[in-house]
Amino acid sequence: MSFKFKRISAKLFSYFVKGLLLLAPVYITGYIIFNLLASLDEHFYFYFRGAGLAVIVAIIMTVGFLGSTFIMIPVFKIFEEGLSHLPLVRLIYFSLKDLVQAFVGDKKKFNQPVLFVLNKESDVRKIGFITQTDLGFLSLEGYVMVYCPHSYAFSGEMLVVPKANVTFLDLPSSDVMKMIISGGVSLTQEVGK
Fold first, then answer.
1. Strand (E) or helix (H) holding 119
2. Exposure class string for 131-168: b at 16+ Cβ within 10 A, else e
3. Which of 69, 67, 73, 37 is nearest to 55 (CA)?
4. What is the CB-side half-sphere exposure of residue 128 using CA atoms within 13 A?
5. I need a labelling partner for 163 at 20 to 30 A (CA). Which of 18, 21, 51, 107 fits?
6. Domain boundaries of the chain, sorted by first residue
7. pLDDT by residue for the chain (193 residues), tens digit each?
8. Which residues contact 111 (CB under 8 A, 6 or more apart)?
């Protein structure tokens, strides 16, 4: 009787763990999206879900359209020129602008995934993205700048690495970024295929 109870309880516990593994990511993703939409709706005082998101998308697209017209380009340049004279604002604004452009701009920076030797003695390696190939302006010939995102965070570190220690990865940068952000958990045999 005791053996049968242990077997049944172990089976029920395994079902619980399996269900948790299947439902937790779905629930957490839904929870985050639901709260994001609710927050947007509250800012715009809308009474139905998703209206705030629709308004934000419309505003972003309108600003993007206006920003690409020949009339607004000088206005944005004057705006940025004004911001460049404000010390703290300049630092925050232009850093964020460069970061956003690195991900989605015309000059994407995270498109060259690399593997490099971090410590030759212990043969520790790290994965990152080359952001600068010519460091002559720093008097560092033969070096490249590599950005290494942190796992599960919106942060990373910038390293200056000898070119000889860098191996280019023949993988899509989006797959490599997903692998890094997930801490290697999302690494599967499908990466790069």
1. strand 113-119
2. bbeeeeeeeeeebbbbbbbeeeeeebeeeebeeebbee
3. 37
4. 24
5. 107
6. 113-181
7. 577 777 888 778 777 777 776 777 677 777 877 777 777 777 766 667 677 777 777 877 887 777 777 777 777 778 788 878 887 777 777 777 776 666 555 556 667 888 888 777 787 888 888 888 888 888 888 888 888 887 876 678 888 888 888 888 888 877 887 788 777 777 655 544 4
8. 129, 173
